[in-house]
Amino acid sequence: MTKITLAKGLNAGLRKAMEDDPKVLIMGEDVGKLGGVFRITDGLQKDFGEDRVIDSPLAESGILGTAVGMAMRGYRPVCEIQFDGFVYPAYDQIVSQVAKIHFRSMGKVKMPIVVRIPFGGGIGAVEHHSESPEAQFAHTPGLKVVACSNPVDGYWMIQQAIACDDPVIFLEPKRQYHADKAELDESVLPQPLFTSRVVREGSDLTLLAYGPMVKTCLLSAEAAAGEGKSVEVIDLRTLSPLDLGPVYASVRKTGRAVVAHEAHVNLGMGSEIAARITEQCFYHLEAPVLRVGGFDTPYPPSRIEEEWLPDLDRVLDAVDRSLAY
Amino acid sequence: MSEHKSDFGPDLGEVFGPHQADGGPDLVQLLTPEGERVEHPDFSFDLDDEAIKGFFRDMVLTRRIDTEATALQRHGELGIWAQLLGQEAAQIGSGRALRKQDFAFPTYREHGVAWCRDIDPLRLLGLFRGVDQGGWDPNDGNFGLYTIVIGAQTLHATGYAMGMQRDGVVGTGDPDRDAAVVAYFGDGASSQGDVNEAFIFAASYNAPVVFFCQNNQWAISEPIERQTRIPLYQRALGFGFPGVRVDGNDVLATYAVSQAALQRARDGQGPTLVEAYTYRMGAHTTTDDPTRYRLSEDLETWKLKDPIQRVKAYLTRNGLADQDFFEELDHEAEKLGEHLREGCRALPEPKPLDVFDYVYAEQTEELAEQKAGYAAYLDSFETTGGHR
């Protein structure tokens, strides 16, 4: 067994997917010789050639639009968007074409496209490099949206996303790329892609997160435990479709829920999740479902991003507010 | 026509010359509006007179599809219709130049190309009637679904062409194997970012795609001068591939130029921009009122260049078609009209519960639950009308 980072997990997952299926292509800016600005595609062009790891012109709509044609021809393109804030030039192709062609063709044309987006903040970048656009895609029927949070999930989820016959927006927490390592045991079968998972058990409150906030929430739960509070943490993993069965079970047990994400709170994923929990668990709730997230402002200059991003203390503050009801 | 005067830099009118309503000296023409064959140094029509009669039939029937659909819209059977009146030669010429293995990516006005790809014209009506969003399988006739977002399909075409390259069906020298893609778009679309990105991608990868621009002079009410200050075909040079302006009302020339461009693509020599210089004689769609923005004398001028009349003149002048031929064709057009009239009203209504099934290839539990919930809701009424 080897210990790997998220970046290595994704790289190995992409490599495995390309080995398993010759129709898998990687497309994007700088994905070839450079191996991507985060080196996620490192070495793949060298081994699979320029026809399968395609360095594209600097045009996001072009990357997604040509991917549509590739998919119609039977390929499975994996498009890399260099940074979250650069996805908007491709937004039309993603929401009007990629998401709708299966529907428009009444199932005759499949769009097995993966759009990899390094997302979220905390890396000290300039503007447009730290955003969390997930709700915009989760709001679009026809797209599936997932977010990985750790190296092992990164390895398996990218392969599962590529194998999926539907378009998948694949969100990668960029500040985790080269952070923590985890052991990858390939003999342990992965859980299905579109499922959530309890990553820490607890009995007093349910903390819900995905992507970069999973780590923050686990640290918060650890800190809360030191104060005698038992916090359960669920890694949502899939944002569209949502897998809320384990969430409902947890909330019925704890009676309290807090949703945390980096994205703006207003109309963010937390809004939908809070509404659904309220619909399904109303009589079990001891407190309103609370949301912790980025403020409803554009992403700030990086020197104050640590203030803007929800951190351990802001999550714990929400935990305390919930428990105070 | 607006003047291109500027205090900054050269007067483009002096650089490129004034706007030329006749298409200018580079216009490729093989059949004059009077129906006379003419030669061109670079492009020749290499089919026989029977083929020309076939093209004539295609154009007459395509026009019938268009006029019949327009009438159906006026009778409330279609919500809207995008007319192609005047663009028959551009579409039949390019459509007939395609081989079976080629693939066409249309806008929403390519009824003539659909005809060439053996799409039942009735299938075209579904989108405009509101019963489906394109009722044909793109892989059956190698004809993509109509695309409403302007220019988006030019990128799909380029990607598809890049897929052909990877499949090894370009430049093999085998005429039954080598394939190309044609992307249709209009003069208005030439302003879109996607079209320009498609040009960049196609040039960069030498993709086997023909960009076939039907410059019909109008993007709804916006004239060509609002889209470009140079002739559109000249833009190709800036992207690094050839551009040709062809008389879009001349079916012989559109065939010859398309055939050459497609062959170039199939041979692995990369993209070509074909600007079919034509005129939208009808409205943009049936909701449009062109009398608000264009001169009737322009329309009268273009009527003299009618793509169908000039072929009829050629056939008649050379004794290639007799009265029986034209009468039989009229009869065939009548039958086609009937097929559309009767078939349109008989198009099956979409079923509300079906919409849940096509969102994803792999159905989600969420949507299955929504479908079940809606089905239960419908069942709660005493009469659901059998539309499920």
UniProtKB/TrEMBL annotation, chain A:
Keyword terms of this UniProt record: Oxidoreductase
Transketolase-like pyrimidine-binding domain mapped to chain residues: 4-179
Cofactor section: thiamine diphosphate
A Pfam family that this protein carries is: Transketolase_C
Drop me one GO molecular function for this one: oxidoreductase activity
One GO biological process this protein is involved in is: response to nutrient
Identify the InterPro entries for this entry: Transketolase-like_Pyr-bd (IPR005475), Transketolase_C (IPR033248)
Protein name, please? Alpha-ketoacid dehydrogenase subunit beta
Q: Which organism is it from?
A: Nocardioides panacis
Automatic annotation (TrEMBL), chain B:
Instruction: Give yes or no: UniProt keyword Iron.
Output: no
Entry cofactors:
thiamine diphosphate
Q: Does the keyword Iron apply?
A: no
Per the record, which residues fall in region Disordered?
A: 1-27
Q: Which InterPro entries match?
A: Alpha-ketoacid_DH_E1_comp (IPR050771), DH_E1 (IPR001017), PdhA/BkdA (IPR017596)
For this UniProt entry, the molecular function terms from Gene Ontology, in alphabetical order, are: oxidoreductase activity, acting on the aldehyde or oxo group of donors, disulfide as acceptor
Keyword annotations from UniProtKB, A to Z: Pyruvate, Thiamine pyrophosphate
What's the name of the protein? Answer: Pyruvate dehydrogenase (Acetyl-transferring) E1 component subunit alpha
Organism of provenance? Nocardioides panacis
**Boundaries of every Dehydrogenase E1 component domain copy:** 58-338
What are its GO biological-process terms?
branched-chain amino acid catabolic process
